[in-house]
Amino acid sequence: MPPCALRGCPFFFSAVIEQRGGIKMAKFTIVDKDTCIACGACSASAPDIFDYDDEGLSFVILDDNKGIAEVPEILEDDLMDAFEGCPTESIKVSDKPFDGDPLKYE
């Protein structure tokens, strides 16, 4: 197993390891409000994770869009559906906390 799998991988290689029965990694998410177009795809795919703020932009319900709360395992499939369905790639997912910065791992 590569060492980055234990620290957290910003390139989603941990998902490959997970699919092969390896280490189960925590998932964190945040919305980049600078690129969100409020299309509703994320809240349709994952209504327990995403909602709209006062400006009509998407945000993460779990931690007020700070990217520090671990997404519950039961919601991870919904999270990945929303991540893959976001037309502007505004939804960020990592196995490490974002600490309020959606561009932290780019």
UniProtKB/TrEMBL annotation:
<keyword id="KW-0479">Metal-binding</keyword>
<dbReference type="InterPro" id="IPR001080">
    <property type="entry name" value="3Fe4S_ferredoxin"/>
</dbReference>
<keyword id="KW-0813">Transport</keyword>
<protein>
    <recommendedName>
        <fullName>Ferredoxin</fullName>
    </recommendedName>
</protein>
<keyword id="KW-0249">Electron transport</keyword>
<keyword id="KW-0411">Iron-sulfur</keyword>
<feature type="domain" description="4Fe-4S ferredoxin-type">
    <location>
        <begin position="27"/>
        <end position="55"/>
    </location>
</feature>
<keyword id="KW-0408">Iron</keyword>
<dbReference type="GO" id="GO:0005506">
    <property type="term" value="F:iron ion binding"/>
</dbReference>
<keyword id="KW-0004">4Fe-4S</keyword>
<dbReference type="InterPro" id="IPR017896">
    <property type="entry name" value="4Fe4S_Fe-S-bd"/>
</dbReference>
<dbReference type="GO" id="GO:0051539">
    <property type="term" value="F:4 iron, 4 sulfur cluster binding"/>
</dbReference>
<dbReference type="GO" id="GO:0009055">
    <property type="term" value="F:electron transfer activity"/>
</dbReference>
<comment type="function">
    <text>Ferredoxins are iron-sulfur proteins that transfer electrons in a wide variety of metabolic reactions.</text>
</comment>
<dbReference type="Pfam" id="PF13370">
    <property type="entry name" value="Fer4_13"/>
</dbReference>
<dbReference type="InterPro" id="IPR052395">
    <property type="entry name" value="ET_Ferredoxin"/>
</dbReference>
